[in-house]
Amino acid sequence: MKQSRTQIFTSMTAQLLASAAMLITTLSVHSASGTTLNGMVQTGGMCSTQPLAHAEVTLLEATTGQPTVIGQATTDTSGHFSISSPNNMSSSIFYVSADVGGHVEFLTVLGTRLPATVIINELTTVAASYSMAQFYKTDVISGNSFSLQVAAGMNDNLVTPVTGDSSFVLLNSPNADETNSLRATRSLANLLAACVHDASVTSTFLDLARPPRGPAPRTTAQALADLTRNPWQNVDAIYALTTLSNAYEPALERMPDAWTVTVKVNDTGDDSHLFAGLGNLTFDSRGYAWITNNTNQGTPFSGQFMVVLKPNGRPSDGTNGTPVSPLTGGGLLGGGYGVSIDPQGSVWVSNFGWGPPNCTYCFPTPDGNGSVSEFSASGTPISGPNGYQGGPVRVQGLAADAQGNIWITSYGTDSVYVFLGGDPNHSVFYQQYSGSQPFGIVLAADGTAWVTNGGGLAGQDPRSVAKYALVNGTLHQEFLHFLGQALKGLALDSQGNAWVTSQGNSTIYALRPDGTQLGKFTGGGINGPWGIAVDGQDNLWVANFGPLQPGSNFTSGRISELCGINPAARPPGKRLGDPISPPTGYTVPSAGSQVLLHNGDPLYGYGVGAQPSFAPLMRLTNVVIDQAGNIWALNNWKPDFDIDVCCNPGGDGAVIFVGLAPPPASQK
């Protein structure tokens, strides 16, 4: 019998129900005197709550500097407060802070519109501190309005501000107990509940959460934001503090490897086009994620669609000229590693093709289905039903430069192409050595392009890194350096150094702008690295695919963090390339429920020999940092290599690490 999606419902006490009912009857109403926000500050959740009297509550509107104080109030003996506001809409975001006393601070993020009512408690504080971590480094939340609104959307994926309870997203598949994050938020809420009742717990937590470089946090809310940015430190001691209260249950049953919190998303907008092998993604100017997709779920055959998600991970629905996800047409066929947006806003996508060799319709060909597709910003196909034909074959990497030239790695022809001005009928190319099979491509600030030559997906042929310049309409190779094994992705830091993933020997290579080697690095959980990203402070984030070998069942998917070129961003005592993440990497364990697809099917289906999977974070091809510092990790293959190779490779969904990394300059 088909397993339905997990539904978890929480109970509330009669006191909370009565309070909520009373609050809901008091609506935010526009009048000459403005809008009134009514709320309650409380401690405890799930089965018991306690109002907090005499808490100082402040309603604020975030800015790029000091926030605007809208109003203040003190809670009564029932924990209630009311604050008047001249407006109920913000071009930035509203948030509300409660000083409970003794350095215990609670927060609730309200977003762009003031709700009628709000609860401020431990769980809303966990959500606020994690989602706003990259903008909450002093006593206040501050940042550009767009990034703050993206962060507020992720806050609502963790908690429901009106009730103070966990969000629908976190309470249901593909989250709930399919990952450990729901329980992690409850454990952290328990820590705050313990702080309310014991000043020594507060003092200990503030000390344990002190960032590697910087002063100790002043309040518990700030301490949680510091912990979000440095989830690897003092994990065991902080876990011990979380066990001092059981106000929020069920909580974690075992210590995590780090204090990361994630949200998994796997709704494409249409269950007839389930996620099946996310290849890569790019964010547009609205923060929407355009995601390539390899196959059809449950099969090895090329998918003919791509997915567009809103900044909060929900499928794009066509509002205000946005796409309706999933997208079809335009020649999409087995999406590859390339997706890029040109200066006019068009989205370019690579088609690689997947399936057994005898599948005649699975692969782009020189004169059949093209290897490149193009869509408008609203999702309308610009390329024809067979894509752009001629030239590149089985494209992996793709990048658009500032002049609208489209740079392409043609894996199937061992060559690098450029569509000049975005015109597929006006192209130039450079023919590389046989077996180079170029994979990743990234553009430097000076307009040159770095290319990884993987030597095949398993690296059976010579591997190298090349750099190209477009000079007077002709491609020139500036250098070619042989290194590594099965090279995949690469990224550039603020000084122009290239960081290259070598999947076959689990190594990250660093090259200076002239191509000379700066170093090679391992550790931090690196295992079969595929994708890599550089954050806004020049540290490195690695997507791990695991080993490409028979019998491998990579059930401990992880991302890794390494020290980059900026000494000021490294923890004290760390050097270039040293790991920051623990030896396990940052993982996402199951809390006991098997992984389900969005339609409710088990990850491996119901076929003969199909086994349940408890690995929500799978074989990853890339990590991409959004405008709020959330890291989107892309599940490309399922964990079991043998099943992947024979018949059912498509990984499920994206796992978003909330507030973990400084947004790169390109996303600010």
Structure description:
This protein is of the alpha+beta class. Helix content is 13%, strand content 31%. A hairpin with a 5-residue loop joins strand 19 and strand 20.
Keywords:
668 residues, alpha+beta, Neuraminidase, four-stranded mixed beta sheet, four-stranded antiparallel beta sheet, 9 helices
A few lines on this structure:
This protein has about 675 residues and is α+β, with helices and mostly antiparallel strands. It is about 15% helix and about 30% strand.
Radius of gyration, in Å, reads 25 Å
Number of helices: 9
Q: Beta-sheet strand percentage?
A: 25-35%
- Number of separate domains: 2
Low-confidence stretches: 1-33
The residue fraction in helices comes out at 10-25%
Termini Cα gap? 47 Å
CATH superfamily of the largest domain: TolB, C-terminal domain
CATH architecture of the largest domain: 6 Propeller
In one word, what is the shape? globular
Summarize the biggest pleated sheet: 4 strands, mixed
What class, by secondary structure content? alpha+beta
